[in-house]
Structure formats: C-alpha cells, structure tokens
Amino acid sequence: MGAYDVVVAGGGHNGLVAAAYLAKAGRRVLVLERQDHTGGLAISARPFPGVDVRLSRYSYLVSLLPSKIVKDLGLDLELRRRRYASYTPKGRTGLLVDGGDAERTRRSFLEVTGSEADHTAWQDFYAMVARTARVLAPTLLEPLPTAAQVERLVGARAWGELFARPIGRTVDERFGDDTVRGVVLTDALIGTFADPATDLLANRCFLYHVIGDGTGEWNVPVGGMGAVSGALETAARRAGAEIRTGAEVVGISPSGEVTFRTDSAEHTVTGGHVLVNLPPAVLDKVLGRTPEPPEGAQLKVNMVLSRLPRLKDGTVDPRAAFSGTFHINEGRDQLARAHAQAAAGEIPELPPAEVYCHSLTDPSILGPELRGRAETLTLFGLHMPARLFRKNPDQAREEALRATFASINAVLAEPLEDCILRAPDGTLCVEAKTPVDLENDAGLPGGHIFHRDLSWPYGDEGGWGVETGHERVLLCGAGARRGGGVSGIPGHNAAMALLS
Ligand SMILES: Cc1cc2nc3c(=O)[nH]c(=O)nc-3n(C[C@H](O)[C@H](O)[C@H](O)COP(=O)(O)OP(=O)(O)OC[C@H]3O[C@@H](n4cnc5c(N)ncnc54)[C@H](O)[C@@H]3O)c2cc1C
Q: What is the distance in A from the centroid of ligand 1 to the CA of 313?
C-alpha cells in the first residue's frame, strides 16, 4: 500500500478509463472498488439460476464512447450496428425506421402519419442534429468550451432549436404527428424526469443521446456490457494499474488521503491526486459535506423469452421490430400524461417504455443450448421516479411491473407473459430494478443512472469539467460535466487534467 501518484475511488468503466490512461503515462495508480468486481453500471450478469445467458444488467447500448478512447487504449471491443433504428406500433400498423432501406422508412411514415410532411421534417431535423453531433462530439475530449464557443460552432439555428429553447417546443413546431413527436422526444427523457415542453434539462438529455462519437448511433456491445468493462479492466491492468476490489472508500481528504474498508480492516493510502468515480452525493459524504441526492426515474426490466411475441402489424417481422428500439406508448401526449401522473406521486396508468432484443444482434450472449431457442428482452421504462418506490418498495415494484406489462400487452397481438422463458426452478425469467433497487444494489444515490442530472457540454468555469473545488481531488465519473452514460469521457478528461 502506501503512496500512489493517483488513487481512483471506484472501479466503474470511467474509473478504469482514467486508470488506463494514467498508468500508460507511467503514473503509479491504485483503483479501489467497493464491489467484488469492476464495471459499476456497465456489467453483464446471469440473473436467472440455471439459465445460461449474460444480460447487460443495467446499461446495454453504447453510443457515447469515442472511437479515440477505444483506439488510444487498444480495447478489444466490437460495437455492432443495428439495422433497424426503431419501431413504434400504432394500432394495426407501426412506424419502422429502417437504416438499410430509406424508401421503406418513407412509406412507413406515410402510412402512419398520412402525409409526407413529417418524413421531410424528420430528414431536415436529423440532418441538423447530425451536423451538431459532428462538430460537438470532438469537443467532449478537450478542455471545456464556453457557451459562446459552442454557439458559434453549432450555428444559430441548431443553438436556438436544441440548446436555447425547450426541445418540446422545437419538436411541436417541426412535427405534426403525435407518434413521431414521441419517438423524437424519448431521447430527451431517458433516465431524466422532466417536462420537455418547459424544462431545458430535457434538451441536455436529448443532446447526449444524439451526439455520441459524432454520429449518435447506438450500438450493441458484442458480449454485453461486461465486455466493455472487461476490455477496460484488461487495458488498465496491462498498463500497470493496481486494482483492488472489495475495498469501500469511506473517507477522502482534500490533501489526498483515502481511507477504505475491506472485510478485515480499515486502511489509508495517499494519492498525489484522487480521482473520484463515485456519484457526487457519495463524494460529498466521504468528504464530510452534506450530500444533495439526485432522483432517478426509470424502471429497468431484464427478461429472457422463449420466442418473440406476435405483433398486431402483420407487415413487419418481429425480428425487425425488436432489434431496434421498440417504443411502447411513447406518443408525445402519452409521455406528457405519464409525467404528470408520476409528478403527482402515482405510477403512470400506461407506463411509456422501450424494449430491445439484443440477442438478435449479438447471439453470443446466449449459451449454446439457448441459441435459436431463446431471446433476451431489455425494457427501459420512463417516468418512474424514485419517490414512487420509497414507501413500499416491493409492493410498488410489483405495481409498476403490472402496469408496464399491461402497457406492452396493449400494443402486442398476444400477452408478453406467454413468451417468457421459465428457469429450471419454474420461475419466470423476469428481473425488475426500480431506482430504489439501484440505490440499494448498486449504491447509486436516488437510483440516478447518470449519478446526477446531466449538465450542458460547456461551461464558463474553464478546466476539464472534472474539478471539485479541491485541487488534488477530481471527478472522473458520470457526475462530471460531460459525464453520464457509458462514454469513458469523464475518465479520459480527468486523466488529461492531470497529464496536461
Ligand atoms: C438501468 C440503467 C440503464 C442504463 N442504460 C444505459 C445505456 O444503455 N447506455 C449508456 O450509455 N448508459 C446507460 N446507463 C448509464 C450508464 O450506465 C452510467 O451513467 C455509467 O455506466 C456510469 O459509469 P461510471 O463509471 O461513471 O460510474 P459507475 O458505473 O456508477 O461506477 C462507479 C463505481 O464506484 C463504485 N463505488 C461506489 N461507491 C464506492 C465506494 N464508497 N468505494 C469504492 N467504490 C465505490 C461502484 O461500485 C461502481 O463500480 C444506464 C444506467 C442504468 C442504471
């Protein structure tokens, strides 16, 4: 033990990125991780006894991880593109956005919306978004730009529509159809409890969902999220970083002393710098400051199916519909109603959610016995704030799950329950995690998936967006500016703040 150049508190994927960069640069680095494994929210798990499937337990898709980080660290990682971006059932039809067939997408818009207008608006809007992504993404790996610099970079039109006024207003002005509006707006609401008509927090969430690596494309990590963290852990160890699991950080001093607890004892090490991968509310606690816990707002459900369910829409193959983002009751008005109900303390009557079948894109997550006989299904439910689950967590989880299944079943031709695989012990392969579960299982304050509300990717304070007010203590996790999501960006930026 003793003295290190850098102690990294927390071995999530961002802590591993920071450790890998710093160790590669010759620094003596120690990573301290509370759990018995690294990866934090970017892990794979086998949640159902006797069922050989590796599910991305929390995060599941990668967009924000810059190819520069993959290259710099020599990561052995495949991020596989999905041909179908999304499918949104509407009555007996549905909107299919097919990345491999522009004409089919156009026809689908025509059928669902009844005119060419929203398809043209879609192309125009996403061309503007694509231009914004191309110029903004490279800045995420540089010292923090100011608002004025970003405004100049993206241009007045994109600045006005994406940054300066609520994204809900932009979407209402550009698109006429409620389904299309909802498809656009979900990117503003993932893991974010906000009203996009009034709250610019939704704009921030939207930006992070559309600018990843300059394309905004969301890809499936082959082997699941565990493969991402696994590749990062390998890179960090290969570069010489020391990683200690089962080590809970309980104290950090501004002078670089880190106290941590293992099974047997309490230890203290000193770092020239301490990089903090912990959520800011946990950092406040270990620094002895009063934490301001954030509030997460999602329901994550992991499932294994014996087969994909039938659709009401006979013209689309379920394998196409489920391989992209399958939107469930996420029309603009449905989203607004669900937000209002949740804000009033009720579980939404028809919870908006999206599901994804990753085994269609990456069958390697299924064991050999299950390949061709089972599929995975991941559900991410919106507008399920932690406050709904505080009083009676188990009962509220059951209620939320019941409402969510009713919501899915409303858009399918058969109940989803009929398609769920049973584990050898007879139980259904369904695992649900509320924000309160994430707080208890993953140590995530408020169950907030981005550690705290996402920040603008610019600021007037200078630096790298990782500063904490203590010179020797820097954030290197999702709670930093330009953090949030599986990106490695705050890990990279904290390392650069030390190396530059
Ligand atoms: C359900 C869910 C779905 C998501 N889906 C996606 C997605 O598809 N795509 C995407 O890009 N993002 C997604 N996210 C968000 C993304 O997973 C996170 O924002 C990101 O993984 C955070 O990474 P991190 O390394 O900064 O922090 P974390 O992964 O939270 O890592 C922090 C680490 O610190 C450890 N730790 C905590 N306290 C202590 C302590 N006292 N001492 C030592 N160690 C400690 C933790 O155990 C953990 O390993 C999702 C998140 C959730 C929860």
A: 37
**What are the angstrom distances between the C-alpha of 334 and each of 339, 392, 402?**
9, 26, 18
Q: How far is the CA of 175 from the centre of ligand 1 (A)?
A: 35
Q: Which residues contact 103 (CB under 8 A, 6 or more apart)?
A: none
As beta bridge partners, residue 377 has: 303
pLDDT of residue 2: 80
385 close to ligand 1 (CB < 6 Angstrom): no
Asked if residue 65 has its Cβ within 6 Å of ligand 1, the reply is no
Residue 469, judged by CB atoms within 10 A of its CB (0-12, 13-18, 19+), counts as: exposed
Q: Which amino acid residue places its CA nearest to atom 50 of ligand 1? A: 59
pLDDT digit string (tens) for 366-402?
999 999 999 999 999 999 999 999 999 999 999 999 9
- The pTM for the full model equals 0.98
142 Cβ partners below 8 Å, 6+ apart? none
Q: What percent of the chain has pLDDT over 90?
A: 98
Helix axes 167-174, 201-210, angle to 10 degrees: 70
283 lines ligand 1 (CB under 6 A): no
Which uninterrupted H or E stretch holds 148?
helix 147-154
pLDDT at 327: 98
Task: Please tell me the residue having the least CA distance from ligand 1 atom 19.
Answer: 485
Question: 153 φ, ψ to 5°?
Answer: -65, -45
pLDDT tier, 1 (very low <50, low <70, confident <90, very high otherwise): low
270 and 3 Cβ atoms separated by less than 8 Å: yes
Residue in 21, 30, 38, 58 to alter for ligand 1 test, most ligand atoms within 8 A of Cβ: 58
What pLDDT does residue 264 have?
81
Does ligand 1 come within 6 angstroms of the Cβ of 141? no
Q: From the CB of 64, is ligand 1 less than 6 Å away?
A: yes
- Average pLDDT (241-270) is 96
